[in-house]
UniProtKB/TrEMBL annotation:
Role: Component of the ubiquinol-cytochrome c oxidoreductase, a multisubunit transmembrane complex that is part of the mitochondrial electron transport chain which drives oxidative phosphorylation. The complex plays an important role in the uptake of multiple carbon sources present in different host niches.
A cellular component annotation (GO) from this entry: respiratory chain complex III
Protein name from the UniProt record: Cytochrome b-c1 complex subunit 8
Subunit structure: Component of the ubiquinol-cytochrome c oxidoreductase (cytochrome b-c1 complex, complex III, CIII), a multisubunit enzyme composed of 3 respiratory subunits cytochrome b, cytochrome c1 and Rieske protein, 2 core protein subunits, and additional low-molecular weight protein subunits. The complex exists as an obligatory dimer and forms supercomplexes (SCs) in the inner mitochondrial membrane with cytochrome c oxidase (complex IV, CIV).
Gene Ontology biological process: mitochondrial electron transport, ubiquinol to cytochrome c
Organism name: Aspergillus pseudotamarii
Protein family: Belongs to the UQCRQ/QCR8 family.
UniProt keyword terms in alphabetical order: Electron transport, Membrane, Mitochondrion, Mitochondrion inner membrane, Respiratory chain, Transmembrane, Transmembrane helix, Transport
Subcellular location: Mitochondrion inner membrane
Ranges annotated as spanning the membrane: 59-77
One Pfam short name: UcrQ
Main location per the UniProt record: mitochondrion
Membrane topology: Single-pass membrane protein
Length: 96
């Protein structure tokens, strides 16, 4: 099984890679590919900086309309409180 008997050198097992033993049969080995081992590698770091980059590029499109809307609502609420007060009724309402 391990080779034939050589009277001068002992037992010859074969050359490197083929030592004369029977080849293993039905041995399955499983491994995980490198890109599947850490599927979320670096996502927290990338998400933080990507969110900052996207915010920085979109803030000038989103913030001015909100600032204008807030200022308009603030003015309208103050004007409404003034018009519904006693001095506002006298100034705008006349003799009502």
């Amino acid at each position: 099984m391990g080779g034939h008997l050589d009277p001068k050198n002992g037992v010859f097992l074969g050359t490197w890679g083929d030592f004369g033993c029977p080849t293993p049969q039905r041995i399955a080995s499983y491994s995980l590919s490198p890109n599947r081992q850490r599927p979320l590698a670096g996502t927290a770091h990338a998400a933080f900086f990507n969110t900052f980059r996207r915010f920085r590029h979109q803030v000038l499109y989103v913030a001015p309309p909100f600032i204008i809307a807030y200022a308009a609502m603030d003015w309208a609420i103050e004007r409404n409180h003034y018009l519904n007060s006693k001095p506002g009724r006298l100034a705008e309402g006349g003799d009502e």
